[in-house]
Amino acid sequence: MRILWLLLIALLLCNGAISAEKDTVAIKKTGFVKALVQDSWQIGTAPLRWKKKQWLQFTAVGATTGVLMLSDEAIRDFFQDNRSKFLDDVSKHTLEPWGTGTLYRSYAMGFTAGMLGIGLATKDEYMTETVGILLRSMIITSASVHVIKYAAGRTRPNRPPYSSNDWNPFQGEKSFVSGHAAQVMTFATVLAERYKHIKWVPIASYSLGVLSSVSRMYDNKHWASDVFVGGLIGYIVGKSTCRFNKNRSTKWFPSISSVDGQLTYGFTYQF
Q1: Residue 21: its pLDDT value, please?
Q2: CATH number of the domain that 231 lies in?
Q3: Is residue 216 part of a domain?
Q4: What is the secondary structure of the chain as a DSSP string?
């Protein structure tokens, strides 16, 4: 885990460079930060461009969320009545870490760092570009989720008064929405979109996303409606960011420098 933590630090503190894709599509040479701002703006202002179809979908999502909210306590009771040591271990050691907010324990961030390392070693530009999209998507998702959590102030199912109707806006409670579900579905969606030409990748990615999200209900950390909306946010951000980045390309490469006679290593990214 220490190695993953060191890789993650290098990943997050990197600088970078832009390169063109191998196909004939015109590439916009946009830096990481500028692309992040553009993607955030496109996603945040999307409702202003919605047509009838999108508003109908929004209504359907709202109705589904409402139904789940009415069923939250019953769903919570079902999962808690059917727990076992085996499933507890699977959830704790296999599913929960994929969406955890603790960076050095996050399987998704470790996997992303591994992709970057492999992409650099094999000079696989498509893979390193995917890493850039993953990072931007995760940043946007994290920011969105934290704003909603703070504004909603919903109490978790494992905290008093153990009621799904306990909402305290701006009071520090953070059940709605599920950050785990949002992050793991962002991760799953980007991989599924970028590698959909490999048939098993979307199946494996979305299966992981759904199971990891469900584990939050099993662990009694979130209500079903928290997980549903969180997962949907992750899916939308991942899908949208992939679409926005079809004409962008990012090239990561390792850098070595000398400071006071000591060599330092990192990743370079040109803004």
Answers
A1: 34
A2: 1.20.144
A3: yes
A4: -HHHHHHHHHHHT--BEE---SSSSPPP---HHHHHHHHHHHHHTGGGG--HHHHHHHHHHHHHHHHHHHHHHHHHHHHHHT--HHHHHHIIIIIGGGS-S-GGG-HHHHHHHHHHHHHHHHT-HHHHHHHHHHHHHHHHHHHHHHHHHHHH-BPPTTSTT--TT-B-TTSS---SS-HHHHHHHHHHHHHHHHTTTSTHHHHHHHHHHHHHHHHHHHTTSS-HHHHHHHHHHHHHHHHHHHHHTTT--EE-EEEEEEETTEEEEEEEB--
Question: Distance between CA atoms of 202 and 193, rounded to whole angstroms?
Answer: 7
- Is 17 part of any domain? no
| Residue 255 and residue 265 in contact, taking contact as beta carbons nearer than 8 Å | yes
Q: How sure is the predictor about 5, in pLDDT bands with cuts at 50, 70 and 90? A: very low
The HSE-up count of residue 2 (CA atoms within 13 Å, CB side) is: 0
Identity of the residue numbered 32: F
Which pTM does this prediction carry?
Answer: 0.80
Residues 6+ positions from 52 with CB-CB distance below 8 Å? none
Whether 93 maps to a domain, the answer reads yes
Burial class (CB in 10 A: 0-12, 13-18, 19+), 161: exposed
Task: Find the radius of gyration of the CA atoms of the chain.
Answer: 20
CB 113 within 8 A of CB 4: yes
Look up the domain containing 47 and give its range: 34-247
Say whether pLDDT at 81 is over 80.
yes
Domain count along the chain: 1
Asked, for residue 96, whether it belongs to a domain, the answer is: yes
